[in-house]
Amino acid sequence: MPINKARLRKLHRILAPIAILPLLLTASTGILYQIAVVRGKRTQFMGLLDLHQGIFGPLNLAPVYPLLNGLGLITLAVTGIMMWFQTRPKRQNRA
Q1: Predicted pLDDT at 90
Q2: What are the backbone dihedrals phi and psi of residue 24, each rounded to the nearest 5 degrees, phi first?
Q3: What's the rounded Cα separation, in Å, for the pair 78 and 91?
Q4: Could you read off the pLDDT of 7-54 as tens digits, one per residue?
Q5: Most buried residue, 6, 70, 92, 95, by most Cβ within 10 Å?
Q6: Collapsed DSSP state (helix, strand, coil) of residue 2
Q7: What confidence score (pLDDT) does residue 58 get?
Q8: What is the pTM of this model?
Q9: How far apart are CA 21 and CA 27, in angstroms?
Q10: Which of 24, 59, 31 is nearest to 45 (CA)?
Q11: Could you give the CA distance from residue 94 to residue 41 in angstroms, rounded to a whole number?
């Protein structure tokens, strides 16, 4: 069953702003924490590790944060790839 192009774009357009924020937060805190580890300042930046794992003060999303991040990334990747394949120009056979 082919997926309607308009519905696919709408799904991608709705999910992208929702999924990009946690993905950017996870990537940036992971990079910054790793830089702190390399510089030997791990204990001073433990708050970054909490944010990276989904612990936002009293709100602890650590049990579901990686799952939601992964599902969001996979969904955006799949819808993006599907849109890319739908918009690619088809080759013409020249005989």
Answers
A1: 67
A2: -65, -40
A3: 23
A4: 888 888 998 899 999 999 999 999 999 999 999 998 899 899 999 999
A5: 70
A6: coil
A7: 94
A8: 0.74
A9: 10
A10: 31
A11: 63
